[in-house]
Amino acid sequence: MSTQRSFSRGALGLFAAGVLVALSGCTPAPQTTPKPTPSPESSAPAPYDGPAVFVGDELDWFLPDAEEISGLLPDVGEVAAPTPSLIQVSDGGGPDPVPAICGAFAYEPSLRSIGARSVTWASSLPDGRDGWLHVLQFADEATAQALMDQYVGAAQQCAEFTYGGPSTFESTVRESDDGVRAVAGSLVIDNGFGGGNSLYRGYAAVGNVVVDFWQPFSGDAAFDSEQAAEFLRDQASDARKKLVEELTANPPEQPETPPAADPAAAWSTWEVTDRGVGPILLGSELEDAIAVVPGAKVIRPEWDGGQTRLVSPDGAASLLLWTGDGGTVVAAVSVGFANVSDEPREDPAALPAAGDVRIGDTVAEAMSAFPGGTSVRIVSSGEYFYDWTTREGAVIRFRVDRDAMDPAAVITGILTEDATLRQIPDFG
Question: What is the pLDDT of residues 36-68, one digit of tens each?
């Protein structure tokens, strides 16, 4: 019995062990957890290294705040809020300075600019006059830097000069490692007739931008030109860094080529773009531009450098072709009112439009369709504009019947221009 029981217990033990072995054979073998394969890291975009061309609201990066202006200049009162606007005097005239390069101080640089941001401030003195700072956008780097070359040259050569009478410019020039230049100083001009001006002046340039400020003063100068030049230089360098960051994150896109216009179509179907108007392209030779519009009546200018008018075959519309500085290349094309002699009165519906914006629309509609531009007032001629620009140096200018800061101002003319064809004066 005991032997049988022992056998039975042994058999049961072996059976149980066999079941466990069998069950263990059915259990999946432990799996090794695979190590995750690291995903390839997204490489950071290469820093933007193209032209340092600022456009539109990027000009705001150059603007000092009220506290900085007060720390930069003496006798600063209330500082107004910056505006996307520009007032040009454009009166010309004045004595011939000796040396000639000192004429750069009397030049109004905004006359060749295509965009601006401005800030003004009152003087804290009872009889003081306002100060101004302009951030001026030019069509390209070459234009802005050529202008700055002349300001640096004037600072070096015009410590003492003649502008009708004996005049002086006590100044400081500063340049950064990345080529940003700035000039600041006290300018005292004697016009030779018992009058003149005393101004604190400052200039800085980077890329296609020139910053220009002035503030009248009386008596002895109380201006730290070194501090001002270094501030202007550093402010411009910071703006350049912001531009590189912006264009690294959002590289500028190549402008799209508009579809070719049908020269035989009604001119009202043509579009004003940053390339031209209808089939007429900016940068074309004048005779080539005329040839692409078959059947148009051509009215030649009465003097060299004047505008050529093309009249549509049905007589309902016309265009003005503008050549730069008496040349033969079409620098601009305009429709509607242009402040020239013998202008026809045309139905706006018969004229080309800029997108959905036509002559007769309000400037508010132009600002909505073409944001980031500049409102311009020319004092000498009583003209008002809203200018919209591209990074390639093109301008679409909307002429309006009153101050463009008034959203109800009415568009009376539209012009498109290749502003890279503009020339700045050479003072010596």
Answer: 555 555 578 899 999 999 999 999 999 999 999
Contact 232, 73 (CB under 8 A): no
Tokens 């148009």 -> residue:
296
Give the DSSP letter string of 175-211: E-TTS-EEEEEEEEEE-SSS-EEEEEEEEEEETTEEE
29 band by pLDDT with thresholds 50, 70 and 90: very low
- What length is written for the chain? 428
- Taking the alpha carbons of 134, 158, 152, 111 in that order, is the dihedral positive or negative? positive
SS (H, E, C) 163-176: ECEEEEEEEEEEEC
Question: Domains of the chain by range and CATH?
Answer: 56-249 (3.40.1000.70), 267-421 (2.60.460)
Within a 10 A sphere around the Cβ of 265, how many other Cβ atoms? Answer: 11
Instruction: Say if pTM beats, i.e. exceeds, 0.90.
Output: no
d(C-alpha 116, C-alpha 257), whole Å = 27
Tens of pLDDT, residue by residue over 148-185, are: 999 999 999 999 999 989 999 999 999 999 899 999 99
Report how far apart the first and last C-alpha atoms of the chain are (Å, whole number).
132
